[in-house]
Amino acid sequence: MPQLRDCKTAADVETMGFPHLFDYAHHCGAALARAHAKAGDAAAISGYVGKGAVLDMALARFAAAYADQTEADHAVLKAAAASGRIVAVDI
């Protein structure tokens, strides 16, 4: 398998339309899959994952829960900064 090129970039997903966001997510998933496939036996991983939607749904649930936790953590951080308990700087 060829070495993947390290392309540092940032995407503004807040302003993307759905087609662009869908395409971006597809490419991120493909890059992640390639990286993980390099670390193990791709055929064995594919056989374990299968063709159903079980993994897809589990990953989607995890992503939603992670996003919810991130938003909750950010709200706690903002409240701590607003109360003066911590010092925070907008950048």
Describe the structure.
The chain has 91 residues and is mostly helical. It folds into two domains: 1-50, no CATH class; 52-91, no CATH class. The protein is built from three helices and no strands. The longest helix is centred in the last third of the chain and has 30 residues, at 54-83. The protein is elongated.
List the helices and strands and how they pair.
Layout: H1 18-38, H2 42-49, H3 54-83
Low-confidence stretches: none
- Mean pLDDT over the full residue set: 86
Distance between the first and last residues' Cα:
40 Å
Radius of gyration in whole Å, from Cα?
18 Å
Separate helix tally: 3
Biggest pleated-sheet summary: none
Structural class estimated from helices and strands: mainly alpha
User: Into which percent range does the helicity of residues fall?
Assistant: 55-70%
* Shape label: elongated
The overall strand count is 0
What pattern of helices and strands is seen along the backbone? HHH
Number of domains: 2
Proportion of residues in extended strands:
under 5%
